[in-house]
TrEMBL record:
It catalyses: 3-dehydroquinate = 3-dehydroshikimate + H2O. The record marks R18 as: Transition state stabilizer. Homododecamer. Substrate binds at N72, H78, D85, I99, S100, R109. This is 3-dehydroquinate dehydratase. Belongs to the type-II 3-dehydroquinase family.
Length: 138
């Protein structure tokens, strides 16, 4: 059984309420239950924080014992050298995901400090971006 973790960054705790035209109306908790049922051969853990240092601590904690990390660092994607360095320093492969197509949004969202250290990047497919990342590990 593959041991995977989804790590979500700032404001992703508001999924289902926040800008539904971009992010949809499903809460992440509802979505998580769906994907756990859909992928019974994977242990899928979940963690969310709005705090950059807490996200880095979590990456350090799971970065040597999990088979894969699915990371949506939210706005920290475009600002956090620390998260990028944390990914570089761990062994577990990371797939960067985004719900929206970040290249179709504001210009500052076109840069990622995560992408250079990630196994891959999936963006623009809504919550299905997470499923595609899960499939990449299975």
């Amino acid at each position: 059984m593959k041991k995977l973790i989804i790590i979500n960054g700032p404001n992703l705790n508001l999924l289902g309420k926040r800008e539904p035209a971009i992010y949809g109306s499903l809460t992440f908790t509802e979505f998580l239950e769906e994907i756990k049922d859909k992928y019974p051969k994977a242990q899928i853990d979940y963690f969310q924080s709005n705090i950059e240092g807490v996200l880095i601590d979590k990456l350090h904690e799971v970065g040597f014992s999990f088979d894969g990390i699915i990371l949506n660092a939210g706005a920290y994607t475009h600002t956090s050298i620390g998260i990028g360095d944390a990914i570089k320093g761990i062994e577990t492969p990371v797939v960067e995901v985004h719900i929206s197509n970040t290249f179709g949004r504001e210009e500052f969202r076109h840069q990622s400090f995560i992408s250079p250290n990630a196994k891959g990047v999936i963006l623009g497919f809504g919550l299905q971006s997470y499923e595609l990342a899960i499939q990449s590990f299975l």
